[in-house]
Amino acid sequence: MAREIYIFSGLGADERVFQKLDFSGHKIAFIKWIAPQKDETIEQYATRLREQIPTTKPILIGLSFGGIMAVEVAKQIETEKVILIASAKTKHEIPIYYRVAGSLRLHKILPTALLKKSNAITNWLFGAESTSDKALLKQIVIDTDPLFLRWAIDKIALWKNQDEPHNLIHIHGTRDKILPYRFIKNVIKVKGGGHFMTLNKEDELNRILKQELMKESE
User: Fold this and answer.
1) Keywords on this record (predicted)?
2) Spatial contact of 86 and 197, defined as CB atoms under 8 Å apart
3) For residue 77, which of 4, 38, 50, 165 sits 20 to 30 Å off, Cα-Cα?
4) Using CA atoms, how far apart are residues 75 and 45, in angstroms rounded to an integer?
């Protein structure tokens, strides 16, 4: 049965990171990132993103920061399923060192030029291995609005959520260096998958997604 699926891309990314995933047979729409307003909370931002979802009981799929936003939107509307890829369900899955840095506001002093730089370190962190993956990551970094990036990093580091959506499915790679696997609970494991695994573990992800989308919700 065809499902209506709304997809939240990763921080600063867009549908390019899903180009190897097969959603044939389903109606999909990609949520567009919008500029955050001054002093906007993550809950308020989720409310504005929600305006892009006219469907009753949709399926939400979120990658990385997109997964965090999918969780926040799911707290405001009824959903059929929420599927996270390389993301976090609650604040407890955000590494403690991010949360400590957030409480000390250390992320506020990072130079914008550093946040917007793609190099061997970012390739390693994201798990971008092939030439094409590295080129795409570099372009995504270039295309990311620095103001949105700073706002989102702040919201990730200070995320307070402790509630998991009903019918949540979490897919996570064992080699994710951004959100390490050891901090993540109750997941479908992708062996060797990194943070960029939508592009280099597509066969395994397509198999898992097909299986999960075929299941009837409880």
Assistant:
1) Hydrolase
2) yes
3) 38
4) 13
How far are the Cα atoms of 35, 62, 150, 174, 202 from residue 198, in angstroms, in the given order? 25, 11, 24, 14, 5
Q: How far apart are CA 183 and CA 195, in angstroms?
A: 14
Asked whether 62 and 176 are in contact (CB, 8 A), the reply is no
**Rounded CA separation 46/48 (Å):** 5
| Residue pLDDT, tens place only, 40-78 | 999 999 999 999 999 999 999 999 999 999 999 999 999
Task: Give the H or E element holding residue 146.
Answer: helix 146-157
64: closest CA among 162, 191, 161, 153?
153
* Structural domains of the chain, ranges and CATH numbers in brackets: 4-214 (3.40.50.1820)
CB–CB of 216/209 below 8 Å?
Answer: no
Positive or negative torsion for Cα 154, 160, 166, 167: positive
Considering the entire predicted model, what is its pTM? 0.91
pLDDT in tens, 159-195: 999 999 989 999 999 999 999 999 999 999 999 999 9
Contact 66, 9 (CB under 8 A): yes
